[in-house]
Amino acid sequence: MDRRTDILTPDTAFLADPSAQRVCAMLEDAGHQVYFVGGCVRNAVIGAPISDIDVATDAHPEVVIDLAGAAGIKAVPTGIDHGTVTLVIDSTPFEVTTFRRDVDTDGRRAVVKFSDDMAEDARRRDFTMNALYADARGVIHDPVQGLEDARMGRVRFIDDASQRIAEDYLRILRFFRFSAWYGDPALGWAPDALAAIAAGLDGLAGLSAERVGAEMLKLLAAHDPAPALSVMARVGVLSALLAGADPRFLGPLIHLEAQNEIAPHAYTRLAALGGDDVAERLRLSRKGQKQLEAIQTMAASTRGPRALGHLVGVDVGQGAMLLRAAMTSGDLPDGWVDALLEGSKTTFPVRATDLPDLRGEALGRRLKALKQHWLDSDLTLSCDALLALPS
User: Fold this and answer.
1) Hey, what long-range contacts does 228-236 have (CB within 8 A, 24 or more apart)?
2) CA of residue 155 relative to chain centroid, distance
3) Is the pLDDT of residue 105 over 70?
4) Cβ neighbours around 263 below 10 Å, total
5) What was the pLDDT predicted at 6?
6) Per-residue pLDDT tens for 141-184?
């Protein structure tokens, strides 16, 4: 049943956006149903920031493309086999997807048929809070009773959890990601969801490393993913995805982040988890792999904050300092954040011209040795002090 239960305020981002309203008017004027859907509506309901604006309609993709052409709107068939056309207005993309129903799934992808029924479209989605629709005037349509779940912070699979998971096993990881971002820990964990997840663990092996890695990084970027990772470890999800990972240092790390007003950093938290072949299992980018390795290496070192700032910069240096303290139950030194920044701007004070008697390899060895002394002093030794050191 289509439950119309509430109305969004007119200043809601997508209601006040002339381009978004233009998309709706284009479809409505042609006699089609059109709704904002998914994350943008969920976030409007709970007061979270809105990023991507997705639209659902009963118009088929070729109709959307034709209407867009007539309206002078750029249309890109980004996922036309699955009903998605991206409309671009003033550089802003709007994904417009035809109502769908699944006719076949293999745990990774679905074969779909188009539908003219919003409720049918809603039931193929993952969680009730993600199946909220709002028309161009802000009237919310709630076909699977997700509005209350969104407001309460209750992450609940639509209908049967086992069936939703079997359609796409990545939903196991998404369950924990959405719980970390939007769930209320006081509500606990739904037993039926955890039972379905435990029964579906074997399906995780068929997921691509890229999809798993993207979900893990989004999960780790939540304000406090520690409870979710703890349950993932208990149910067996964490070991299935990332052998050797251990969430025991995650709680202390997050506490230190909050205590020092440091924003969440997914790679620092991934470094805290550890695990075997992390970069390969999660198919990290080269930049991400370098960040992860640098945080882990510097956290295991004894370098001071100025030296860390000089070697790896402020962001990675912060992660290394926080992780070191979390793993050793140690204290962070006073002024350590400012020291990192200072170190990142400091250059090695000794130049080749300061060693006029040395050439070639001998000069290189001496400069390298002096730099090690300088780093060991946390950048406190001056040029004169370094040159006075015995060779």
Assistant:
1) 228/176, 228/177, 228/179, 228/180, 229/176, 229/273, 231/176, 231/189, 231/194, 232/176, 235/194, 235/197, 235/198, 235/201, 236/198, 236/201
2) 17
3) no
4) 9
5) 87
6) 999 999 999 999 999 999 999 999 999 999 999 999 999 999 99
Q: Distance (Å, rounded) from C-alpha 312 to C-alpha 199?
A: 43
Can you tell me which residue has the tokens 């060991």? 376
Q: How far apart are CA 254 and CA 273, in angstroms?
A: 12
Confidence (pLDDT) at 80 = 85
> d(Cα 136, Cα 23) in Å, to the nearest integer?
10
Strands 74-79 and 4-7: unpaired
The tokens for 250 are: 């995650």
Q: List the one residue out of 48, 25, 23, 53 whose CA is nearest residue 38.
A: 53
Residue 78 · residue 84 · CB < 8 Å: yes
pLDDT at position 107 is 55
For the CA atoms of 184, 188, 191, 192, what is the dihedral angle to 10 degrees? -10
For the full predicted model, state whether its pTM sits above 0.85.
yes
